From TrEMBL:
Pfam family, any one: GTP-bdg_N
Subcellular location: Cytoplasm
Chain's role: GTPase that associates with the 50S ribosomal subunit and may have a role during protein synthesis or ribosome biogenesis.
Gene label: hflX
Cellular compartments per GO CC: cytoplasm
Family: Belongs to the TRAFAC class OBG-HflX-like GTPase superfamily. HflX GTPase family.
GO MF annotation: an example: metal ion binding
Annotated positions binding Mg(2+): S213, T233
NCBIfam families: GTP_HflX, PRK11058.1
The protein's name: GTPase HflX
Assembly behavior: Monomer. Associates with the 50S ribosomal subunit.
Organism per entry: Parathalassolituus penaei
CDD domains, sorted: HflX
Hflx-type G domain residues: 200-367
Length: 436
């Protein structure tokens, strides 16, 4: 007799949390509760246990499996959620014994992402992550069709239902990859356009529910959905922000990170997270009142490393200081006097002037205003600067020389000089005092 996976899902859930020693399997219980509530489930019971290593068959001991089953029957729960990543075989074994749906931490996060995605791109990214996650779990629902049967009227069409599903899944994954490649190309084109116009890009990153979208809305007068829940923002949003002498910059709001963020999600959202990897400055928003603040910072840095964004300059923003006693807006500086952190409250919009000041100081080393003089023979450089939208004013001397005031990033200016074969010290060193 083959096990049939129950088809009726439910929101009443029993939670399971195993307290492992410090290591890769360790998870936070309070964060788990927030994830479950964010997904819309109604937790009616919690089973906890201590183990040194997971059980190969059920992840937990058989005694705890019986305890979970009794608690689920008592409350009429149709869903059991584990605060850990389970193997497909462990999920199948648990579902067979408990006779209800079993969901692990990865599946829970994927479900939240599926609920929150609003744009076409976001939905494609979530669907891709879900399909790749389900690829090894298809057997659960089709165990009765694993074997073809012989006899008149019972011969199969040449492949089992499971094989058909896997083939369709591969085709769908290939199709989504192709569509996301187009999205990635469009984003790359947008970034190149901003680079040509010398408009710096800033990306807001941080642990989920650190207040990134609240800060983004307050700074740019945007209407991005912001709520006191995990993963309130999935779809990236870009807005322009005026920052003192720097002028306009582009500010990008990105998806929140979380410990043990499923690798499939990082891969699926790579097109979105590329905004963070290729920006001029990362604004790392930190919940200053969170008990595990330092650990959350480490988890964000791990994801930044996974998307190759560790070399991007970073300005840390300690948000929610209104929830701390005696905390006031301030700028923290390193030994060289460079701003490295800003303490503020996005909800009360206090400390924003200090944030703009810190951004201007950090970008001031990259975006400069320079007065240069070109001879008629160097007019090719003028054409390149016009192409990049860097020229602010232009005038001509009686001898035919061209006087330009340009505003652009130093790296772009050096590349432009290299293209026309003009040495850097022709402009940069002699007029360093003219940089504004």
């Amino acid at each position: 007799m083959f096990f049939e996976r129950p088809q009726n899902g439910g929101e009443v859930a029993v939670l399971v949390h195993i307290d492992f020693p410090e290591g890769p399997n360790r998870e936070d219980l309070e964060e788990f509760r927030e994830l479950v509530i964010s997904a819309g489930a109604d937790p009616v019971g919690l089973i906890t246990a201590r183990r040194d290593v997971p059980d190969a068959r059920f992840f937990i001991g058989t005694g705890k499996v019986e305890e979970i089953g009794e608690l689920a029957r008592m409350h009429g729960a149709e869903l059991v959620i584990f605060n850990h990543s389970l193997s497909p075989s462990q999920e199948r074994n648990l579902e067979k014994v408990l006779q209800c749906r079993v969901l692990d931490r990865t599946g829970l996060i994927l479900d939240i992402f599926a609920q929150r995605a609003r744009t076409h791109e976001g939905k494609l990214q979530v669907e891709l992550a879900q399909l790749e996650y389900q690829a090894t779990r298809l057997v659960r629902g089709w165990t009765h069709l694993e074997r073809q049967k012989g006899g008149i009227g019972l011969r199969g069409p040449g492949e089992t239902q499971l094989e058909t599903d896997r083939r369709l899944l591969r085709e769908r994954v290939k199709n989504i990859h192709g569509r996301l490649e187009k999205v990635r190309a469009q984003r790359d084109q947008g970034r190149r356009a901003r680079q040509r116009s010398a408009v710096p890009t800033l990306a807001i990153v941080g642990y989920t529910n650190a207040g990134k979208s609240t800060l983004f809305n307050a700074l740019t007068n945007a209407d991005v959905y912001a709520a006191d829940q995990l993963f309130a923002t999935l779809d990236p949003t870009l807005r322009r922000l005026l920052v003192g002498e720097i002028g306009e910059v582009v500010l990008a709001d990105t998806v929140g990170f979380i410990r043990h963020l499923p690798h499939k999600l990082v891969e699926a959202f790579r097109a979105t997270l590329q905004e963070a990897a290729e920006c001029e400055l990362l604004l790392h928003v930190v919940d200053a009142a969170a008990p595990e603040r330092d650990h959350n910072i480490e988890q964000v840095d791990l994801v930044l490393n996974e998307i190759d964004a560790t070399d991007v300059p970073q300005l840390r923003i300690y948000n929610k200081i209104d929830m701390l006693e005696h905390a006031r807006p301030r700028i923290d500086r390193n030994d060289q006097g460079q701003p490295v952190a800003v303490w503020l409250s996005a909800r009360e919009q206090s400390g924003f002037d200090l944030l703009r000041q810190a951004i201007a100081e950090r970008l001031g080393n990259q975006v400069r205003v320079l007065d240069i003089r070109l001879s008629a023979a160097e007019s090719r450089l003028r054409a390149i600067l016009y192409e990049q939208g860097a020229i602010q004013t232009e005038s001509y001397e009686d001898n035919g020389d061209i006087c330009l005031r340009i505003r652009m990033q130093m790296a772009d200016f050096r590349r432009a000089l290299a293209r026309v074969g003009i040495p850097e010290d022709r402009f940069i060193e002699p007029v360093r005092e003219d940089w504004q």
